[in-house]
What does this fold into?
Amino acid sequence: MTSALPASVLDLAPVLPVVVIEDAADAVPLARALVAGGLPAIEVTLRTPAALEAIREITGQVPQALVGAGTLISPEQVTDVVAAGARFLVSPGWTDVLLEAMRGSGVPFLPGVSTTSEVVALLERGVREMKFFPAQAAGGTAYLKSLSGPLPQARFCPTGGIGPGSAPEYLALPNVACVGGSWMLPRDAIEARDWSRVEALAREAAGLSAGGTCR
It folds into this structure.
C-alpha cells in the first residue's frame, strides 16, 4: 500500500535524486536501489519519452518510494504526471498559470526560483518551499545565504551543478532543507545496470549533512 503524502518532501532525506530514465525497464530496479540506499524521494524528470511510464512503474511496484515528477513547464504535464502516480511536483521556474495547476493537483510541489523577486512573489502567494535552480549558476551558497536574512521563511532545495563535495556547504545553510542532484546515478552504472553501485552511492549521499558528516 502506498504511504500517505509527507508534510514536506524537503524533510525526507538530505538529497533528492534527480533521475533521467531512458528505458522504463530500468525504473523499478533503479528506484529500489535508491530506496535501499536511504533516498526514498525520487524526482523523475520529463526529459525522455520513458518518463511517464517510469513514474507509473515505480508507483505501482516500489511502494517505499515517493516518486515525483520534475521539469514541469505546463498545466498539461501536471495533469499527466499526477495521473501516472506522481506524488510531488517540481518545476524549473514558474508562472501564475503553472503555479495554479500545481496547487490544484492536490500533491506537494516545489516551484523553481533563481531571483529574490521570484521568491518574494511566491511568498506573497503562500508558497514557502521552493527549488533554487540552477543553483551554482544562479549564485550558489553565497546567494542563498544572502536570502536567509531578509527572507527566513523561504526553504529551498537547490539543484543544478551540485555534487558530493559541495552538498555539505549547501546543507549548512539555515534555509536549505535538502539538495537535488544526480551524482549517485552515473551514466556508466545505469548503462551497466549496476544497481549495487547506485545503492552504495545513494547510501553515501543519504549520510551527507552540513560539514560532510553523517546525520
About this structure: The radius of gyration is 16 Å. The chain has one domain: 15-206. DSSP finds nine helices and nine strands in the chain. The beta strands are 15-19, 41-45, 66-70, 89-90, 109-110, 112-113, 129-132, 155-158, 179-181.
